[in-house]
Write a structure and sequence with these properties.
The complex is a heterodimer. Chain A has one domain: Class I glutamine amidotransferase (GATase) domain (Rossmann fold). Chain A starts with 7 loop residues before the first strand and ends in an 8-residue tail after the last helix. In chain A, 27% of the residues lie in helices and 29% in strands. In chain A, helix 1 crosses helix 6. The radius of gyration of chain A is 17 Å and the shape is globular. Chain A is of the alpha/beta class. Chain A has seven helices and twelve strands. A six-stranded mixed β-sheet of chain A has the order 2-1-3-4-12-11, sandwiched between helices. A four-stranded antiparallel β-sheet of chain A has the order 8-7-9-10. In chain A, strand 11 and strand 12 form a beta hairpin. In chain B, helix 3 packs across helix 6. The N terminus of chain B is likely disordered. Chain B is globular. Classes of the chains: A alpha/beta, B alpha/beta. Chains A and B meet through helix 1 and helix 7 of A and helix 14 of B.
């Protein structure tokens, strides 16, 4: 493929250095949707102590936690990551991974650290725990319908001029909570989002966007499956929750 | 055996007036809650009592020999095993319903005021304050791994356990899993540790030394941190070929509950009962009588489908349950997942589970979250169908044995419906 010979290699980067949210599920969804289009794939998890190999897609992230500085250290120490991005690899950063992909992020004690600088975003630690369902607005430029997810973080993320938000928000806090509220960032083939966990399961179009970025073409759609059905239900539930005044027990 | 000084203090020990009033008010709240159909009332009853007298837990525990059991997985079953084993010494207070924070413990201890012993499962995040209040004779620490996906950190819990271990009463013994490096690191500062070869349910969270954040070196002998020197301690209790081996001999792990994980739970219960002086054969005889744990593993007949319920809460318990399913190739498989509570709002943990072990099998997904689960099963190569209603889903399976993996809310719904 683009970044390396052989099958499309999808790497889950350092799941042991974040508070895992089943983020590895995103690699499974990417592989599944690639295979459904007869694209040969391989998934691999790389842990602390190993450097990242050249790959086509990297997925990293999880809840913010005290090991987030180590995540940045290990990502920065893998020269293959930057080389692969330059060669056309895609990166998906989720929650803490999104923050670490930026220029600067905060540890759980609020102290600031340098990120690996592949997204023009800067994150500081806010005072309030942002915890709740997210519904994005459609992003026609990227071919994304309303996405459904959940955010759980303390981050206040400001976007620089070299990135565009991944989506504006119908519901949720997102990057910095200011209007118009937005979630995530995109620059080239690097994508970050606060939608955490196996976000691609419920939002297969985002998986297809990642695959399309690395393959350099828009992928033909697949028949709707369980993921789309799950998203419809979650969006309905979230809208009902909003309509009832966002009671404390969240979706 | 029970300490003599505590034995003499057991009988008719009167509580201070304030505590007695707090507990009486708690019982009223509990009864009211139960009559209003709001559940057992144990939590609210305990809350009321603690609000009126914050020392009530300490006072209720002060005349007993108490065993605390904590873990990400297996604490309810192990505590039930342990309670059965300790009953050979005398009455045992036990939070049987699984309410494992201070409020639930208050209710359980109040319900068995004269019991000289207590076997209490404790939520991982509350071990420190509860240990400080009850001054336990033993604390059993079994495993730590990732839990619900929002805000609960097994890493912080490991640190919390370590702080707890460093501030124990001098006569408290920790019974700890030597095979889980998070647990071994947490138990290190304790004055007395009985190490158990408890296995490692979930290896993904045991890659790093919690003290140094360096990768652990693993080999056949276990794990080793080359920075701080943490190594796998030598266990004195083992489970080998279906036999439990302790310092004074061995006994077959003949239990009615299925799976290796439950035999490991029995291993921990025997090791802990040993701290109280109960010999393994006597303890095993008591444990062998247990056929279900609050409905878990109980079998129900639904029009010729013999359904066994399994509760799954997190990645490790998914892994354990799937392994059990994989070993029973002829059984029908149901994944029942509803939308209430933490495990209903967030179904992500199934994405960590080794569902691929069931590739090629047929399965049914039911409940509000059936589509979340069905996608994971489909990606793993399982032929999955979805049915909204749990009982309809059971009836859609061929007659014969059916294993049902349930999240917390689906488990409670199914337990009620199958019992009626």
């Amino acid at each position: 493929m683009i970044a390396c010979a052989g099958p499309l290699l999808i790497v889950s980067a350092y799941p042991d250095l974040t508070l895992p949210q089943a983020d590895d599920g995103n690699a499974l969804v990417l592989a599944h949707r690639a295979r459904a289009r007869d694209i040969d794939t391989e998934t691999r998890a790389v842990h602390c102590g190993e450097h990242l190999p050249p790959a086509d897609i990297y997925v990293t992230g999880g809840l913010e936690d005290e090991d987030q500085g180590e995540l940045a250290r290990w990502l920065a120490s893998s020269p293959a990551l930057r080389d692969a991005i330059a060669a056309g690899a895609a990166v998906l950063g989720l929650n803490s991974g999104y923050q670490v992909l930026g220029e600067r992020f905060a540890l759980t004690d609020g102290s600031l650290r340098e990120g690996i600088g592949v997204l023009d975003v800067r994150t500081r630690r806010g005072e309030a725990w942002i915890d709740g369902p997210v519904i994005t607005r459609p992003n026609a430029d990227l071919g994304l319908p309303p996405l459904s997810g959940y955010e759980s973080h303390f981050g206040i993320t400001e976007l620089g001029p070299d990135v565009a938000p991944l989506a504006l928000l119908e519901e949720g806090h997102g990057n910095d909570g200011t209007e118009p509220r937005s979630d995530g960032a995109l620059a080239g083939r690097v994508v970050g989002t606060y939608l955490h966990g196996p976000v691609l399961a419920r939002n297969p179009e985002l998986a297809d966007l990642m695959l399309g970025l690395v393959l350099g073409r828009t992928l033909e759609p697949l028949p709707p499956s369980f993921g789309e059905a799950s998203r419809r239900r979650r969006i309905d539930e979230a809208r009902r929750w909003v309509a009832s005044g966002r009671p404390k027990v969240k979706l | 055996m029970l300490k003599e000084s505590r034995q003499t203090a057991i009988a008719h020990r009167a509580l201070p007036l304030r505590a007695g009033f707090a507990l009486a008010a708690g019982r009223v709240a509990k009864d009211l809650s139960r009559r209003l159909g709001k559940g057992s009332g144990g939590v609210i009853g305990g809350n009321v009592a603690l609000r009126l007298d914050p020392r009530v837990l300490e006072l209720l525990a002060s005349h007993r020999e108490t065993a605390l059991v904590s873990a990400t997985n297996g604490k309810s079953t192990t505590t039930q095993f342990l309670a059965a084993a300790l009953e050979v010494l005398g009455p045992v207070a036990h939070n049987r319903g699984g309410s494992n924070m201070a409020n639930g413990l208050v209710t359980a201890l109040d319900a068995a005021r004269d019991a000289p012993l207590a076997a209490l499962e404790v939520d991982e995040a509350y071990l420190g304050p509860i240990s400080a209040a009850v001054a336990p004779r033993s604390i059993t620490l079994m495993n730590l791994s990732r839990e619900f996906t929002r805000g609960v950190s097994f890493k912080r819990e490991a640190g919390h356990w370590r702080d707890t271990a460093a501030h124990l009463p001098p006569d408290c013994t920790i019974v700890a899993n030597a095979d889980d490096p998070l647990v071994a690191w947490a138990a290190q500062p304790a004055p007395t540790v009985v190490w158990v070869e408890g296995g490692l349910l979930w290896e993904e969270d045991a890659r790093l030394c919690r003290g140094c954040l360096e990768p652990l070196a693993w080999d056949r002998a276990g794990y080793r941190c080359d920075v701080c020197g943490l190594t796998r301690p030598e266990p004195v209790w083992r489970l080998v070929d279906g036999e439990i081996h302790g310092p004074s001999g061995s006994v077959p792990a003949d239990i009615r509950l299925p799976g290796r994980a439950n035999r490991v739970n029995a291993l921990f219960a025997l090791a802990t009962a040993g701290v109280f002086g109960v010999d393994p054969a006597t303890a095993m005889a008591a444990i062998a009588r247990i056929g279900d744990v609050d409905g878990r593993y109980r079998q129900y007949d639904v029009d010729g489908r013999i359904v066994q319920l399994h509760m799954v809460k997190n990645s490790a318990s998914w892994g354990e349950t799937i392994e059990l399913f994989a070993c029973d190739a002829g059984a029908g498989l149901l994944f029942a997942v509803d939308g209430f509570g933490l495990t209903g709002r967030d179904t992500a943990t199934i994405w960590d589970a080794p569902v691929e072990r069931l590739a090629g099998r047929r399965a049914t997904a039911s409940g509000v979250r059936r589509d979340d689960i069905a996608l994971r099963l489909e990606i793993a190569g399982i032929q999955v169908t979805t049915v909204e209603d749990h009982l309809d889903a059971i009836r859609s399976c061929p007659p014969g044995p059916v294993h049902a993996a349930c999240n917390y809310s689906a488990f409670n719904v199914l337990k009620k419906r199958l019992a009626s």
